[in-house]
Design brief:
Structural class: alpha+beta
Number of strands: 8
Order of helices and strands: HHHHHHHEHHEEEEHEEEH
Number of domains: 4
Number of helices: 11
């Protein structure tokens, strides 16, 4: 457990150092191109080397290759560096001459990547036609990207799409004895709906403000605002349709689109109802699998387990805090299932 915590801290230090280096190189590059005595050709070359080659190379060699972050981000970093170089390089330089070629290559690569992804989606959709709902989405994501962090990101996006558009036709009938909701008494649903509704006037407000201050960023801000609205709708629907469940000798923990974890009952040491003071006690290996801090059940594990938080982000934990509408019912169900399991 201590070694995993140490590795996680080391990863955070490495990634933070890379971000600091990234920002420092940006400031250095912009400082150099602001100097009048530096020739435009040298300015463009410095920008290209720093932003398009050095930073992606450092990221790949010292961050991605060591396993601290995904190697797939190297390509977007290179693309972002090239885009920044073209955007900030002085005109009439060798860099500006290749702008049209870069845009063509970027469009071709992007189109190829999207086409490949859509093809894999179509194949996986047909292959797993016998499955429905989340099992189908999980199988499709694993088929397309195997068991990588990208598969978790893809799974999250597919789940968001599914709950935003298709959950309205989904039946919410569950095994009441082994199903535990968390959205009725906690206020989660009302809060998420409130944030969602707030987006409607917010879109118009942001559109007007950004259009006057930075017209070139208008499309980006509008798309981000629309995506956040779409995500909030999906999250609100998932709060209803993704309850905490006990099934197949596992405790399935969820909270909206967060925390999709299967905890074997044999790995659960104890479960008890807790109050505010105990729930707020800070422990490094304790995971709060709730929204807005609503906690009333503490589940202790026998062995530390790597738990999924969101889109491939994980945490090693041996304690899990849950917030359910009927905490006593959940604790009794876990205890009963453990006793029944131990008798066989």
């Amino acid at each position: 457990m201590d070694s995993k915590v140490a590795v996680r801290k080391h990863s955070s230090i490495v990634i933070s150092s890379y971000v600091l280096l990234f920002v420092s190189v940006y400031f250095l590059a912009f400082h150099l191109i602001s100097l009048e005595q530096v020739h435009d050709e040298i300015k463009g070359l410095l920008l290209f080397v720093d932003l398009s080659l050095v930073l992606p190379a450092i990221y790949f060699l010292f961050v991605a290759r060591k396993g601290y972050a995904s190697k797939l981000l190297t390509i977007p970093l290179f693309g972002l560096g090239m885009l920044s170089t073209i955007n900030f390089a002085p005109g009439n330089t060798i860099v500006s001459e290749f702008t049209s070629y870069y845009l063509v290559v970027a469009v071709l690569i992007g189109s190829a990547a999207i086409s490949y992804l859509m093809l894999r989606l179509a194949i996986s959709f047909k292959r797993f036609s016998h499955l429905k709902g989340e099992p189908k989405i999980e199988a499709m994501s694993t088929f397309i990207a195997r068991k990588t962090k990208f598969s978790k990101i893809l799974q999250t996006e597919l789940l968001t799409f599914y709950y935003a558009l298709f959950s309205w036709f989904k039946s919410n009938k569950k095994d009441e004895a082994n199903t535990f909701s968390y959205h009725r008494k906690s206020g989660h649903y009302g809060m998420v709906i409130g944030v969602t509704v707030f987006h409607v006037p917010g879109i118009a407000f942001v559109h007007v403000v950004v259009a006057n201050m930075a017209p070139q960023l208008l499309l980006i801000f509008t798309l981000l605002h629309l995506y956040s609205f779409y995500f909030c709708v999906a999250f609100a629907r998932a709060l209803i349709h993704r309850p905490i469940q006990i099934e197949n000798d596992r405790l399935q923990i969820r909270c909206g689109l967060l925390f999709n974890n299967a905890i074997p009952l044999e790995n659960i040491e104890s479960a008890k109802v807790v109050g505010f003071v105990e729930a707020e006690t800070r422990i490094k290996t304790r995971l709060k699998a709730t929204l807005f801090g609503h906690c009333n059940v503490l589940v202790k594990l026998k062995k530390t387990q790597e738990l999924d938080i969101f889109s491939g982000i994980t945490q090693s934990s041996d304690q899990i805090l849950l917030g359910v509408d009927e905490p006593g019912k959940l604790v009794s169900a876990i205890t009963l299932r453990k006793v029944i399991g131990a008798s066989f």
